[in-house]
Sequence to fold (322 residues):
Amino acid sequence: MKKNRVTKMMAALGATALLLGSLTGCGSTSTETTGAAAVETTEQASVQEESDTDTAAEDAEPQEETEQAVEETTDKAISGTITMAGSTSMEKLANAVAESFMEKYPDVTVTAEFTGSSAGIEAVLNGSVDIGNSSRSLKDEEKASGAVENIVAIDGIAVVTDPANTVTGLTTEQLISIYTGETKNWSDVGGEDEAIVVVGREAGSGTRGAFEELLGIEDACAYANELDSTGAVMAKVASTPGAIGYVSLDVLDDTVIALSLDGVEATEENIKGGTYSLSRPFVMATNGEISQQSDAVQELFAYLQTEEGKNLITTVGLIIPD
Fold:
């Protein structure tokens, strides 16, 4: 660059010398003025060249910054696998999260099995899965073993009957009496003369654990049927005259009747307002804090805190925890 600048200055000075020679007879004042103008023109050309060089350098900087930003984004790409196991009540949520997260991060594979809450927590503690899904709060002994309770949503437990039942609501005391076997006929709670068929979940189910704990009837229930999934409870109650059962609020449909409890309907608004008593947390348990998990698992929990993640939770009929 400097060599080109010197060459241009020498050429300009040469041209000035020729001009001075041609104007010798015209007087010294004209010669000095012309020479000064030529020198000034040469200096201006030099300054302009320096300015053009600086501008070119500045134009190159944004390109370098863009390339650096692209490189940093590539470095943060998430890949790997995430495995989940646990609550059948969380099947709808887990599948929705897996599908949405994999769409956002194509290099991540998310799989989920539905083996029951207790089995899910046991699996995360023994290291066979990354996340243990539980539709109940963690027990003290589970926490002592290293399980961390990460509440991602709140769910209501709906009490349901077969669609032909004429009873539309129960009190908490009546519900307890039915499930402990003291009340055995619907006529005792304002219904038809029909035997009550008590349907519930299997031992180890998060829904069963939460339901019995909320009502204070742990290990005191008289079940006619103990089924291993939410779907099985729905199908059994829908097809069995006189049946009563409990299911996650987000799976309700018109195949069953959802009973009010103490005059309060099982709705999201009533659960948020605290007037409907049967609600429980949906937990994605980890073995240790989230910060100790893989990058993919950490990113999944971060995703659930975004607006997109929260919208996903509400879309499947659940409530965002405070």
